[in-house]
Amino acid sequence: MGKFYNSVNLKKDLCMGCINCIKRCPTQAIRVRDGKAEIIKEFCIDCGECIRICPHHAKEATYDSPEIMKKYEYTVALPAPSFYGQFNNLDDINIVLSALKRMGFDQIYEVGKAAEIVSELTRKYVAENQDKWPIISTACPTVVRLIQIRFPNLIEHLLPIYAPVDLAAISARKKAMEETGLPSEKIGIIFISPCPAKVTAVKSPIGIKKSEIDGVLAMKEVYTMLLPLMKESVNSVEDLSQSGRIGIGWGGSGGEAGALLTDNYLAADGIENVIRVLDDLEDQKFEQLEFIELNACSGGCVGGVLTVENPYVAKVRLKRLRKYLPVACNHLDTEDTTEAKWTQDVQFEPVFKIGKNMLDSINKMSIVEELCTRFPGLDCGSCGAPTCKALAEDIVRGVAQEEDCIHILRDYIHKISDELSRLDNKR
Asked: How many Cβ atoms sit within 10 Å of the Cβ of residue 159?
């Protein structure tokens, strides 16, 4: 089983042991034991739902400090399209990009630019691989990880093309090396991210051996640093933007699929809706679909937990920014795309298995079912597991016991009390 990096972590000193997170986690990756939450690393897909829901701010995303820029002689910022939707009354993307240079970046390479290339590559791939329809987008690392651990039959439908941010990083590094003459290790490629899953995709990439991204900054931190710099940049704006309507559109749900010039697609956002779509897809409920775009966050990348703006407000802003732009500013015939295809196969990671082999799993599942008949079936979470079945599976795995269920514990206490009473009466 592969080793996965997780970018969502628990701050135990702030955890109050409530069960908000265990009920919200889409992969049942959290338990509450001894009054504190625990994240089961191999179950976690870094969707960030626990960060959103925790009232005590006990979950945090891992990302780099802006200080990382000082490690390199030359730095290139990779702003995600969703970043532009964070700013109120923005009418020119170049104001944001110019402010990034004032912040200390030497050059800018928009992820939206690479997204337009990925859109063309996707159109070509979809047309040439009808036997794999529907093709599932791989731009959201949370969705790819979810499929890898829970939907093995859908792995062959994954789009084996670099996500825009990874393609942007490759192109940005190559361009920086050509322009500066500096070796690769002295050039820092820094992504400005809307979500922690992108951090995981850099540290533990799927489909590629190594990411060319050197650091990941949180969009919410860069946002606060840019606001005063944007006021300074208004009178000295550089013409830096190289994205069209397609590239900017990738920032919100439906933007990627809408760029494929087909009506036979489905676009879903929000992790619960994503899981519902994948369940239906596995049950073969969809017909004649060519492409499926899935975003773990509501509204798409504009809804990431590292953003600052309401995702639906941000989507409207992106739509307004796109209005007078050309459809696309980047095309395959002008870009080198030899490194745009995945280099490694995605392997199924059976993290949820409870046995060493098929026979062992069948035997243990029968024990799980028998345990479930003893539990009340309330899925109350008081035991520290999200459901009665999850508790039964934990018991079989050896990390929990029946008495963790308060209803069984109550009956056990009553039984002990009755026994003690009988012994006392015999004296």
From this structure: 25
